[in-house]
Structures are given as structure tokens and as C-alpha cells.
Amino acid sequence: MTRPERPPAERNITIRQEILAVLEEVESNASDLSKSVRLTEKEIYAHLDELCKSGRVETIPAACNSCGYRFEDRRKARKPGKCPRCKSTRIDPPRFRRKS
């Protein structure tokens, strides 16, 4: 069974402008942003990568819930798969905020 195609949502501003507007109010992770902007997390990560490269968004690194390791050197916006120190998969995703 196939899902019926739905038309894309009408927008008055660009997706990246909408993401920046949300991040101006509160820091968020990709999951929260995807709900606010109504895009998939995969699409949000693609936009966040570009916003981070342009210097308009700041990343608060992901952290391991088991040992506390912080992924400071990570360049990608995505959540890491497992901790390099303790190999746990219980990881808080990175959070993002707009640079002031």
C-alpha cells in the first residue's frame, strides 16, 4: 500500500531562516527542530551542517550518559553511534544554538 503524496508546506521564509528563528528562542537538538520545522531529522542535519560551516550556528557537543565523555572534536552535526571510551550507545545528541 502506498501513501498518498501530500504537497509540500507553503513557506514564507526559507528552511534555514526558520531553523535560525527557532534557535534564536531556545537551544534545541535535531529531533526538536524537526518537529518545529516539520522536516525529517535527515533533512535538518543537512541544513545544520551548512549553518555550522557558515558560522551562524554553534554546536554544544554530544555526551555519553555512561562515562561522561564529550565529543568535542566531532565535526558532523549528527549524533555519534557509540562512545570511543566505554563503547556505550547511551549518548545525548548534540544541541544547537544561534551564535550571537
From TrEMBL:
Using the record's annotation, list all stretches that form the PF0610-like rubredoxin-like zinc beta-ribbon C-terminal domain: 61-97
UniProt domain PF0610-like winged HTH N-terminal: residue ranges: 14-54
UniProt region (Disordered), positions on chain: 78-100
Task: Spell out the Basic residues composition-biased ranges.
Answer: 78-88
Compositional bias, Basic and acidic residues, is annotated for 89-100
Q: Which Gene3D superfamilies match?
A: Winged helix-like DNA-binding domain superfamily/Winged helix DNA-binding domain (1.10.10.10)
Q: Could you tell me what this protein is called?
A: Transcriptional regulator
